[in-house]
Specification:
about 425 residues, alpha+beta, Nucleotidyltransferase, domain 5, DNA Binding (I), subunit A, 4 domains, seven-stranded mixed sheet, 22 strands, globular, disordered C terminus
């Protein structure tokens, strides 16, 4: 993988290979600035020649793919919808239960043009935050964005046209791409993966079924031919659990499509505000580039395939996955399985100079946890911490044996290898 390089004045230079970075560190010519993404700073150089680098983005509802050209590492960015949902549940409980009165604050607020809900603004702010970070780590010269539009009316009724748009539920996108995401690229009837999938009507058109996206699913050729024009209840009569799951998933809302629609232009305008030239590409162009070059589908590789592309080298390197973990919570208690408070959390964030989320190295000389442990720390008031390593959770580590290597910045980091088609078949 490539390593970000800064000069003596922290100006970004061209990234280098792992071997070269190791030699610079061993010879004392560089020091480590960050572990994730791995960045070094040269101690004996100011300035240098750079080459054009393109930062490409594949924005999504839950995960946004970010890729840097010129053999740099790719990044997956995951959002935190679950935490927003939990916070909303706590707020509703405070307002509905017999607690202190809290007057509603929504009646005296107006929504300006371009207003986004907090969950959508979180997606936008997190993506822009990492665009700005990468600009400080690499000499980026231009930006690319996949500007996808989900026509949710056409998703519900592919044959819609003309004035029917004024009478639909919402207001296109490739329906096949939407179905692939909705059904997780698996056959709805047998669960087969890594096989060619066909669009299938859950209730056959010969029995009154429509072309609405809620009546469409994906099936392998064998299941599609075996089902024929049977009603779904008859075809899956001996699999009631699969039938129930299929029917519930078919009615899933177009929440992800609406999230992408709401943020795509806001992200484009924010990218233009960086001062760098911004170009766009369509979802169909990204898919064409990926299939033409024989590249598997991931969020990061989709970002690398955005826009005009002739070749993509060394794409099968591990992906750095970022997950927004936050910098703390307002919750002052933990809950038991019935939802009642259990104990109280300490109000101080730092204990003996450590904070939950810091990446530390613990060197235990003796005891059952003897050895070297590297991972994220969870602090305790007693001074005996827990360390989450890549493989397990180590508990009861004294703060005296810990050393900080990177402070918590609100994100969790992990590496995900890219699996080729051959590797999947072997696995």
């Amino acid at each position: 993988m490539a390593v970000f390089v800064l000069d003596q004045q922290k100006t970004p230079l061209m990234p280098c290979s792992e071997k070269r970075a190791r030699l610079l560190l061993e010879r004392g010519r560089a020091v480590v600035v960050r572990l994730h993404p791995f960045t070094i700073r040269l101690k004996d150089r100011i300035g240098g020649e750079t080459q054009p680098l393109h930062l490409s983005l594949d924005p999504g509802s839950k995960t946004t793919g970010i890729a840097l050209a010129r053999n740099l590492e790719r990044i997956d960015l995951e959002t935190v919808r679950e935490r927003l949902t939990a916070r909303r549940a706590f707020r509703r409980r405070r307002r509905s239960k017999n607690l202190r009165h809290r007057a509603p604050r929504c009646h005296n607020r107006t929504k300006p043009q371009g207003w986004l809900a907090p969950s959508l603004r979180h997606r936008l702010d997190t993506t822009l935050n990492w665009v700005n970070r990468l600009q400080r780590l690499a000499p980026i010269t231009s930006l690319r964005q996949e500007l996808v539009r989900f026509d949710t009316q056409a998703l519900q009724n592919p044959e819609i046209s003309g004035v029917e748009y004024q009478q639909g539920e919402l207001a296109g996108y490739e329906a096949r791409e939407y179905l692939l995401e909705k059904w997780h690229r698996t056959c709805a009837y047998c669960g087969a993966t890594q096989v060619p999938l066909e669009i299938e009507h859950i209730q056959p058109k010969s029995r009154g079924g429509s072309d609405r996206v809620s009546n469409l699913t994906l099936a392998c050729r064998t299941c599609n031919q075996r089902k024929g024009r049977q009603p779904i209840e008859d075809f899956l009569s001996n699999q009631p659990e699969r039938l129930r799951r299929l029917q519930s998933q078919a009615k899933a809302p177009l929440r992800d499509a609406a999230a992408v629609n709401a943020t795509r232009w806001a992200l484009f305008e924010r990218l233009k505000a960086t001062g760098l030239p911004v170009s766009t590409g369509s979802g169909g162009q990204t898919k064409y580039n990926r299939q033409r070059l024989g590249i598997p589908k991931t969020h990061a590789l989709d970002a690398a395939c955005v826009g005009p592309l002739t070749a993509l080298h060394r794409w099968n390197i591990p992906t750095l996955t970022l997950q927004a973990t936050g910098r703390g919570r307002y919750q002052r208690t933990r809950l038991n399985r019935f939802g009642f408070p259990r104990g109280y959390l300490m109000r101080e964030k730092r204990v003996h100079g450590f904070q939950t989320g810091d990446r530390v190295i613990a060197e235990m000389p003796t005891g059952k946890n003897a050895g070297i442990h590297v991972g994220r720390v969870a602090v305790r008031a007693s001074g005996r911490f827990n360390i989450q390593t890549a493989t397990n959770l180590v508990q009861g580590i004294s703060h005296r044996h810990c050393r900080v290597v990177q402070r918590a910045d609100g994100y969790g980091y992990s590496f995900t290898p890219i699996q080729t088609e051959e590797a999947r078949q072997v696995g």
